[in-house]
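> example.struct
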């Protein structure tokens, strides 16, 4: 493969984006960028600094000094917010909800998109999120939009929680996903939606290997 492509993968939570993107990045020797962690870090920053999300000035001050660093390794990604490791904290339920709430705000999105473009504009990247193919890199070389039945997605997240020793109710997880799908899809700024030129992939009945191979084949064909 001669060119260092920009590959965008969007879709709702637990559709399989990050697992696929991570494995694909390894296969292609590309850099993987998970943009969800950036909105999660913003949510945590607002919580820590007691920022009123309706106060533009407070938000602006927070965004001016925010530093988000992602360290990628085989063992899992480490996320640092203003120098402090927050990888585990940002996965907790309160931050998941807050990330979706803060992601509706135009100034927050503008700042994250600016950072994401800087991270990815040289190519050789796979970026996953909600608006990568529509807003961050509308000229991406390849765009994929992953979906899956909400019940299947809830089961996936439930299994993950079990493996971490967290005793969550499947029904609560499903309701949280439904709320977040709605909040992410109905917002005015960069809603979650399939780019016109994205290839849809319904992962409900697919394995992770199927997903990686499907995308890999498309990319190799150019
Ligand atoms: O990044 P996104 O939120 O779209 O999903 P993910 O974190 O890649 O996948 C959510 C969970 O579902 C992970 O634990 C995956 O291993 C699992 N998964 C699965 O079991 N089968 C698939 N076909 C895709 C994902
Ligand atoms: O891992 P999971 O799929 O549950 O969520 P995530 O990818 O970590 O994203 C958390 C939240 O950040 C999403 O529900 C969106 O509200 C927001 N987000 C966004 O608005 N735009 C992106 N490019 C990525 C995430």
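> example.seq
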């Amino acid at each position: 493969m001669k060119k260092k492509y920009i590959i965008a993968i969007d879709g709702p939570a637990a559709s399989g984006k990050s697992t696929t993107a991570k494995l694909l990045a390894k296969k292609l020797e590309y850099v993987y960028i998970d943009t969800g962690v950036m909105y999660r870090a913003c949510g945590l920053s607002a919580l820590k600094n007691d920022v009123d999300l309706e106060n533009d000035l407070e938000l602006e001050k927070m965004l001016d000094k925010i530093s988000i660093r992602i360290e990628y390794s085989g063992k899992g990604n480490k996320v640092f917010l203003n120098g402090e490791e927050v990888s585990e904290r940002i996965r907790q339920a309160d931050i998941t909800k807050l990330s979706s709430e803060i992601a509706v705000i135009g100034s927050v999105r503008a700042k994250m998109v600016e950072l994401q473009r800087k991270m990815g504009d040289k190519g050789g990247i796979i970026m996953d999120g909600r608006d990568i193919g529509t807003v961050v890199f509308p000229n991406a070389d390849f765009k994929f939009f992953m979906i899956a039945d909400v019940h299947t997605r809830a089961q996936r997240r439930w299994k993950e929680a079990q493996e971490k020793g967290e005793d969550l109710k499947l029904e609560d997880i499903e309701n949280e996903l439904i709320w977040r799908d709605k909040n992410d899809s109905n917002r005015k700024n960069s809603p979650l939606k399939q780019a016109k030129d994205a290839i849809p992939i319904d992962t409900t009945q697919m394995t992770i290997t199927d997903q990686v191979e499907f995308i890999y084949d498309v990319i190799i064909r150019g």
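> remarks
Residues 11, 13-19, 156, 160, 203, 206-208, 211 surround cytidine-5'-diphosphate (ligand 1) (CB under 6 Å).
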